[in-house]
Design goal:
- The protein is mainly α and 82 residues long.
- The chain has 4 helices and 2 strands, in the order H-H-E-E-H-H.
- The termini are far apart.
- 0% of the residues are buried.
Length: 82
């Protein structure tokens, strides 16, 4: 591609990007506010994404710490039986 073609393509791409608009949010204002409140709570852990989607998993830190060592061992034992 010569420099003139590259500049034309670059200009065309810039025009498309400038005219593009952001998609409408898929959460309501209340849902967004609730998520931000959860994120600001130091006793809560949030995971994104969950199970091949954009689900939100919310756990309390004390529950996570209690199960942190148990869950991996269960998975290893289950895997070794197969």
């Amino acid at each position: 591609m010569n420099p003139d073609e590259a500049e034309d393509l670059r200009s065309e791409v810039m025009g498309v990007l400038r005219s593009a608009s952001c998609p409408k949010p898929n959460r309501t204002k209340n849902e967004s506010q609730a998520l931000s409140e959860l994120k600001s709570n130091p006793s809560i852990i949030m995971f994104l994404p969950a199970n091949k989607g954009r689900a939100t998993v919310v756990l309390e830190k004390r529950i996570m710490k209690r199960n942190y060592y148990v869950l991996p061992l269960y998975r290893v034992k289950k895997w070794k039986k197969n």
